[in-house]
Amino acid sequence: MKPYPKEKNLDNHSKRGADLEKEINLSNTYYRDLDIALIYKKPTPVQVVRVDYESRNKAKITEAYYRTPSTTDYNGIYRGKYIDFEVKDTKNKTNFPLQMVHDHQIKHLEKVEQHGGIGFFIIRFSYHGQTFLVDAPTLIQKIKSTNKYAIPYEWFLEHGNLIQEGLYPRLQYLKVVDAIYFKEDS
Amino acid sequence: MKPYPKEKNLDNHSKRGADLEKEINLSNTYYRDLDIALIYKKPTPVQVVRVDYESRNKAKITEAYYRTPSTTDYNGIYRGKYIDFEVKDTKNKTNFPLQMVHDHQIKHLEKVEQHGGIGFFIIRFSYHGQTFLVDAPTLIQKIKSTNKYAIPYEWFLEHGNLIQEGLYPRLQYLKVVDAIYFKEDS
Ligand SMILES: [Mg+2]
Ligand SMILES: [Mg+2]
């Protein structure tokens, strides 16, 4: 087995990762309905080139292109704090490939920390059926200090925080946020 | 002159308001470049129905529709606080027509306040060449207590906060945020 197998269709807006995002969206709906947190997926930015106005109220976009987002997947507010995170899903068994993390995401999450917000990654190793929450500054420091193209799965067992799964919410990631970022209060 | 003239193309994704948004986007770029605040326009949500993959890296969307956003125009972080606001631009000389404010925007901004964030409206009366920042709870209370279809321009002179315009940033709206929400610190 090759040490750092390439992920296919990395930036091809494929469906990969769609399940994880769906679970996070459902969890966010639950958190919003119970007034626990106000967190939304940022829409994928689309550059619209041509629109047909068939009827006054239903404009049909007939030519458009995906644009590279400048930021991350999710943001919002929880317990009075600004929350911002990026979601990644890998099928890789032994490593998290660093090509999955883009420069603009690192820069954005660094700025979130700088401005006093809470920034993290939610990373799923689907082979292991495990989803980790990792503090952004911690992962970014690791990314900057490694000379490899990937971070071993074991690193996440040690430095990541396993997110419990359930029915409501599907991914109880705010429990982990409580434990890491609101230690004093809980 | 009719008391509450209707705005044309209200939800038709017209270009109206585009100038104001452009000025706010430029101001946000300035604030980000100087590490003053991290505030972005939320992309307009689009439901993609069909995509042509002509080449591996440039997917062309050939059928898509605008969706109604669930939230507001902008959010981000400033001085450690979550910031969220909606932008409106009216040509109306004497009134701000309430049909411009949607239910989901009111509900969202109420939740922002409830969770400890800072929520407001930026409203431009283009006839007067004036742009006001109005605290969301204040405007929402006014909307809920009036039985009219509009709020008089005079109300904004009294309860709104005029945003100074300049070169950099174009709209100095964070000065107003400082004055209203960070009184003690300045
Ligand atoms: Mg992602
Ligand atoms: Mg608007």
Automatic annotation (TrEMBL), chains A, B:
Q: Which reaction does it catalyse?
A: Endonucleolytic cleavage at a junction such as a reciprocal single-stranded crossover between two homologous DNA duplexes (Holliday junction)
Enzyme class, one word? Answer: hydrolase
Q: Know the name of this protein?
A: Holliday junction resolvase RecU
Named cofactor requirement(s): Mg(2+)
Q: Which family does it belong to?
A: Belongs to the RecU family.
The note on the cofactor says: Binds 1 Mg(2+) ion per subunit.
Q: Which GO terms describe its biological process?
A: chromosome segregation; DNA recombination; DNA repair
Sum up the protein's function in the record's words: Endonuclease that resolves Holliday junction intermediates in genetic recombination. Cleaves mobile four-strand junctions by introducing symmetrical nicks in paired strands. Promotes annealing of linear ssDNA with homologous dsDNA. Required for DNA repair, homologous recombination and chromosome segregation.
